[in-house]
Amino acid sequence: MNPLIKIRRDLHQIPELGFQEVKTQAYLLSYLKSLPQDRITIKKWRTGLFVKIQGLNPQKTIGYRTDIDGLPISEETGLQFSSSHADHMHACGHDFHMSIALGVLTYFTGNPIADNLLFIFQPAEEGPGGAEPMLKSEEMMEWKPDLIFALHIAPEYPVGTIAVKEGLLFANTSELFIDLKGKGGHAARPHETNDMVVAACTLVNQLQTIISRNVDPLDSAVITIGKITGGTVQNIIAENARLEGTIRTLSSESMKKVKHRIEALVKGIEAGFECEAVIDYGSMYHQVYNTESVTRDFMKYLQKETEVKVIECKEAMTGEDFGYMLKEIPGLMFWLGVDSPYGLHHAKLTPNEAAIDVAVSVMTSYISHLENKI
Ligand SMILES: CC(=O)N[C@@H](CCC[C@H](N)C(=O)O)C(=O)O
């Protein structure tokens, strides 16, 4: 079997949530130790890793980042190498991202270039976010790349396709948690209580009006409530309820406006239901903004020198904390076609493994082309 496919399948079986990637880190380390060590320096960072390959005559450092965490999803692919961790799955392709990063890294240990290379194995992309603290780490201060690259699998595109665009690629994000506290009581005596299930349902419906009534129709924004919890049993009126969701906007101004409207509606719920509400925005990700000149060079190179089909895509409302790295370092992220009938964050996501070699070949070739180029 292709060794990178074996790596992908091994990693697929051990998905771990953000900052709990202990087995993943151990697996990556054990693979890295099997490579020739003469040019490699490895530094652990929490559950992630920095791996530097010393260049032959370095003028700059080229960075390549992969995320390493999984999601709290029960896998339903029926694959022989399905997740062995109950209720956890690599349903966002980070198993692919890691095996591609290892493939590119392995190539350059045997074929060093003039420039230094820095591979970043970043925890907690799905939350609470590893990119921003990694960026501020001592290791990053010492080894900070001059250019940085990353990819994300795209189930909607065929294998052999790369989709990218200059400028904005992914949205600004903010998590959203709202806790409601009222007065519970007997199911048959609603007049003595403040029912937080009814308050939560009302609020979920009101939140939908922000996108339709407060955001410019020519702008785009998303509010998704992915989880509601509340109450205890069917015949007790709920004292507590909690909404968990995420906000996506194309600009930081719209993010401020959406939050302002959420706060106003939550105040209305507090007044209307005589309850208390606490809003917590959790973690926020900066938009992914691809450096124009780097993206133009990348697209031109792929079209001229490789067989991949390059698509100029639209921006997406997905989020990625790689945006923090691109805020400080020129570079880009692109979508890699993996052709799965089920999308990202779906329990049946089955990306086509043929895309792994496509990505390794594109990235080894493009990084080699960057050697000695500023
Ligand atoms: C590529 C991708 O799917 N990224 C996640 C990032 C989530 C950030 C955070 N936990 C949030 O939900 O706001 C995404 O859901 O877009």
What topology emerges from the helices and strands here?
Blueprint: H1 3-12, H2 22-33, E1 40-45, E2 48-53, E3 61-67, H3 94-110, E4 116-122, H4 131-135, H5 138-143, E5 147-154, E6 161-164, E7 167-170, E8 172-181, E9 185-186, H6 196-214, E10 221-230, E11 236-237, E12 240-249, H7 252-273, E13 276-280, E14 284-285, E15 288-290, H8 292-305, E16 309-312, H9 322-328, E17 331-337, H10 354-370
Parallel strand pairs: 3-4, 3-5, 5-17, 6-16
Antiparallel strand pairs: 1-2, 2-4, 6-17, 7-15, 8-12, 8-13, 8-14, 9-11, 10-12
Descriptive account of the structure:
- This protein is of the alpha+beta class and 374 residues long.
- 34% of the residues lie in helices and 26% in strands.
- The protein has 10 helices and 17 strands.
- The chain is elongated, with a radius of gyration of 23 Å.
- The model has no long low-confidence stretch (mean pLDDT 97).
- Ligand L5K734KM binds next to β8.
Strand ordering within the main sheet: 1-2-4-3-5-17-6-16
**Ligand species:** ligand L5K734KM
* Coarse structural class: alpha+beta
What is the percentage of strand-forming residues?
Answer: 25-35%
Question: Based on the structure given, which CATH architecture of the largest domain is correct?
Answer: 3-Layer(aba) Sandwich
C-alpha geometry:
elongated
**Number of helices, where a helix is a run of at least 4 consecutive DSSP H or I residues:** 10
Count of folded domains? 2
Helix content: 25-40%
